[in-house]
Write a structure and sequence with these properties.
It contains 10 helices and 20 strands. With 423 residues, the protein is of the alpha/beta class. The strands form 3 sheets. Strands 1, 2, 3, 4, 5, 6, 7, 8, 9, 10 and 11 form an 11-stranded mixed beta sheet that branches.
């Protein structure tokens, strides 16, 4: 997987990028704005272009957007994340706020905005109703939330030609048109990415109020630079976090591929997900446990409770990594000594789970672990059993989830995490 990044993001740092190198490339549309900086962030390949050149020497109208997009596409990037400074056209979007754009209005006049300069092979019209990738938008929003950065989950940007800023009349008109922010770079960048069939997403940072707000001075380049540069480290954090999600996505895909599916077992029409093929694969198990550890390492877990039988395996390994104790939850009659039990309904009949009465002290924080979440009946009974003897459920964690069977809804009040879903 390769991800392209456009903008003065601060990521072009050899200390952040492994295997850092610069590529001086050419394209059928000329040279891009800067050499490509390529390398790895984590295990994801990235390619970075400085939109206005390394020294911000290229005016907005002269940015070779076609060459920039072509170069990233040619390098193999399937996704592009862009960063941009924007002026706020809304009172509630303050300086330093992030805006995850979902729409744009193109007020540029002089830019090359298509790769399709002829219709020799027939009409090449296409929809741009949704110009920003929803997957990239969700990941950028998630990153802002996890980093606790103030952000706005939607925003329409109006792109003007530049290099001049708006008149007051223009700024007020753009507000009437429904734009929330203003800049000089998203169009035609987003248009060309769509033509190149590359997913495109943008994190915008508000640096000023353009010139519509009477109590504020009109925007200046000095103000934009000051606000953006003072916040560039936060932009870098969002980008790194977003790229991390793609790294996780790739690892989850690899783990999922190690789980065998057996059709018509244990009865016709059932697709059985056989986790034993994952368990015997040392790299697959290592990645699985790393995921679970990273999620819970800062959750102050006192005990991990595992449900018979594969929950014992995943739960015990995780407990050791978390420096926590392990508690088994078993079917009736399997535990010696004094136990607490709870009966629960099955599709046909009932079953019972047990736990030692002295397994959990009052108010201890307990993580419930099992290999599979299906209907959720056993897991719900286990959660209630843990509460019955005084434990506090932190979350219930599963390697595999079968969402169609409704287990997540049944466990909703306890919180559910699953690594892999099979529809």
């Amino acid at each position: 997987m390769k991800i392209g990044i456009i903008g003065g993001s601060g990521l072009d740092n050899p200390e952040i990028i492994k295997d850092y190198k610069e590529l001086d490339v050419n394209t059928p549309f000329g040279k891009p704005s800067s050499p490509l900086i390529v390398g790895k962030i984590g295990d994801i390949d990235v390619a970075i272009i400085a939109r206005h050149g390394r020294k911000h020497q290229i005016p907005p109208t002269q940015v070779n957007n076609r060459a920039n997009i072509f170069a990233l596409k040619d390098y193999g990037c399937k996704r592009i994340i862009s960063t941009t400074a924007v002026g706020s056209l809304k009172e509630e979007i303050q300086r330093g706020d992030f805006v995850i754009l979902d729409q744009f209005i193109d007020f540029t006049k002089q830019r090359k905005e298509t790769f399709f300069e002829s219709f020799d092979f027939g009409p090449l019209h296409y929809s741009l109703a949704h110009p920003f990738s929803e997957d990239l938008r969700k990941k950028l929003i998630r990153a802002c939330k996890e980093l606790e950065f103030k952000h706005h989950q939607k925003g329409t940007v109006v792109t003007i030609e530049g290099p001049r800023f708006s008149t007051i009349a223009e700024s007020k008109m753009f507000r009437i048109l429904g734009a929330e922010v203003i800049n000089m770079s998203i169009a035609p960048e987003a248009i060309l990415a769509a033509e190149a069939e590359v997913e495109y997403g943008t994190i915008a940072m508000s640096t000023d109020y353009d010139c519509w707000k009477q109590e504020e001075k009109p925007v200046s380049w000095e103000e934009i630079s000051k606000v953006f540069n003072s916040n560039v480290e936060r932009v870098v954090q969002v980008l790194l976090k977003t790229i991390q999600y793609f790294s996780e996505q790739e690892k989850i895909r690899e783990i999922k591929e190690k789980i065998r599916t057996i059709p018509d077992f244990p009865k016709p029409g059932v697709m059985f997900r056989d986790i034993t093929t994952l368990m015997k694969d040392k790299e697959g198990m290592k990645k699985t446990m790393e995921f679970l550890y990273e999620r819970y390492k800062d959750k102050k877990i006192d005990l991990v409770a595992g449900i018979e039988s594969r929950g014992f395996i995943f739960g015990a390994i995780l407990a050791e990594k978390l420096n926590a104790g392990f508690v088994p939850i078993r079917k009736k009659g399997k535990l010696p000594g004094e136990t607490e039990q709870l009966e629960y309904m099955l599709e046909y009949g009932t079953d019972t789970v047990e736990i030692h009465k002295d397994a959990i002290s009052p108010r201890q924080r307990v993580l419930l672990v099992d290999d599979l979440l299906a209907t959720g009946g056993t897991s719900l009974a286990a959660c209630k059993l843990i509460e019955k003897i005084g434990g506090e459920i932190v979350e219930s964690a599963f390697v595999i989830e079968l969402p169609a069977l409704g287990g997540r809804e049944k466990l909703s009040r306890y919180g559910v995490f699953s690594l892999i879903s099979f529809e």
